[in-house]
Amino acid sequence: MPTGGPTRGDAWQLARTAGMTQPGIARFEAGGTVPTIPVLERLARALDADLVVRLAPRSPAA
């Protein structure tokens, strides 16, 4: 029965499509490393998605 969440196989396929390793994907998922913009671009292409980076003004200090 599908759980609805990503599986180890999904991470392996994403890594393969993005030209990365599955352990590299796992480190991002676990919060062990922060991906760079170029890595995010590769992941976006692998997911057939657009990477959008948006800057917004900071809220005034309280």
TrEMBL record:
SUPFAM superfamilies: lambda repressor-like DNA-binding domains (SSF47413). It comes from the Bacteria. Residues 13-54 form the HTH cro/C1-type domain. One of its GO terms (molecular function) is DNA binding. It holds the Pfam family HTH_31. Signal peptide: none annotated. This is Helix-turn-helix domain-containing protein.
